[in-house]
Amino acid sequence: MSVNIAIDGPAGAGKSTVSRALAKELGYLYVDTGAMYRAIAYYFVSREYPLTNESFAQNCKNAKVELHYENGEQRVLLNGTDVTSLIRSKEVTSAASLCSAVPEVREHLLALQQDLAARNDVVMDGRDIGTTILPHAQVKIFLTASPDRRAHRRCAELEEKGEKCSYDEILQQIIERDERDCSRKTSPLRQAEDAVLVDTSDMDIEMVVKTLIRIVEEKAAEQ
Prior knowledge:
The protein is of the alpha/beta class. The chain is built from nine helices and eight strands. It has one domain: Rossmann fold (3-Layer(aba) Sandwich). Helix 1 packs across helix 9, helix 2 packs across helix 4 and helix 2 crosses helix 5. The relative contact order is 0.21.
């Protein structure tokens, strides 16, 4: 039986970075579900399709998203093309927040996510992993941080890529995305009842990973 670790939390909480490091430490497969929604968003943005619920619902099935792994690193394919390096722009990030709230888009990706978890030991991160995608995961963690801290992290990430960044703009985007993620009708962002809350506001990556490893070990001892 595969072991599943579900990590949920708001945008900018450090889920992807920490989950990738945790998976490497444990020898598990890392599944970044956010990258899958970004691939769908990139499909619409690159083709200049309307970013509306109706448009997403009607056209999302034309976007075939696959995850491949090279030396343990996740690569995202969209209709057979590797788009891993193209899905982190601010435009795609904004569009991903919109399309991820559309039931048809979530259903389109659900089978792939659950199949990966059924066949592999995985660390999977997203917004509804512990509540919807992997409700029976052996370990559930809700990773969060203050909006201010998350905005600073996002700006640093963009600046490292050579992109200009407005802290106030990023902070507003995070606040608005939190509102959308928490209030959407389909799989809203919320902490699962059996998830462990970890606030990373005052923690660096190494501290967070050590905390999560301790949680995983404690959960394993209980089972």
